[in-house]
Amino acid sequence: MDASGILVFETPIGPCGLAWGERGLIGVSLPEATAEATRARLLRRFPEAVGSEPPPEVLDAKARILALLAGEPADLSPIVLDLGRVGAFEQRIYDIARTIPPGQTLSYGEIAARLGEPQAAQAVGQAMGKNPWPIVVPCHRVVGSGGKLGGFSAPGGTRTKLRILEIEGALKPEGLPLFGGG
Fold first, then answer.
1. Are 109 and 118 in contact (CB under 8 A)?
2. Contact of 130 with 90, CB cutoff 8 Å
3. Range of 97-111, 147-161, 164-178 with top mean pLDDT
4. What is residue 177's predicted lDDT score, i.e. its pLDDT?
């Protein structure tokens, strides 16, 4: 990728943003109240991401995210992330989370089991809470045990999580996440 920068764009859930560096996306921001607020949040998180026009990889990421949030089939796995800003344990968690297909969920405990560390469910939850790439690393698809919604640290909190799960078809009629199947 070329240089660094920030791109804010309108989506069906509000203004989202991408920040990138030379090795991939360094962050994704879910909607704040306005596009300006989304941009300001990204600049606070990534003050070095100022400058260039979005390269083709960033425009492709934007198109894939827009398609997903419009309820269309979209594969976000080709989006390149700069993993150099997170630890090895978090990288393993995020790699597993990226395998959860739209419309499905996994629990924190299921991800911990897939890591080979079944007692690490709380650590998985903490990593999800610090996820720099919501949607691309689909932390909204990670729920508590028994299908409980769990928290969501992105702007809008659990309301945003429910909205994305609804778009993806991952909610039961009573509004709770479908559990398992990932």
1. yes
2. yes
3. 97-111
4. 53
Q: Is the pLDDT of residue 182 over 50?
A: no
The whole-angstrom separation of Cα 90 and Cα 54 is 27
Average pLDDT of the residues in 114-128:
95
SS3 1: coil
Residue 11 phi, psi (nearest 5) = -135, 170
**How many angstroms separate the CA atoms of 20 and 126, rounded?**
23
Q: Specify the residue for token string 């709380």.
A: 122
Q: How far apart are the C-alpha atoms of 74 and 67, rounded to whole Å? A: 6
Q: Which two tokens stand for residue 104?
A: 């499905």
Cite the active site residues: 139
State both tokens at 76: 């976000």
Greatest CA separation found in the chain? 46
Torsion of CA 13, 100, 29, 7, to 10 degrees: -90
The whole-angstrom separation of Cα 141 and Cα 12 is 18
8 A C-beta contact, residue 133 and residue 26: no
In order of their start, the domains of the chain are 5-69 (3.30.160), 86-168 (1.10.10.10)
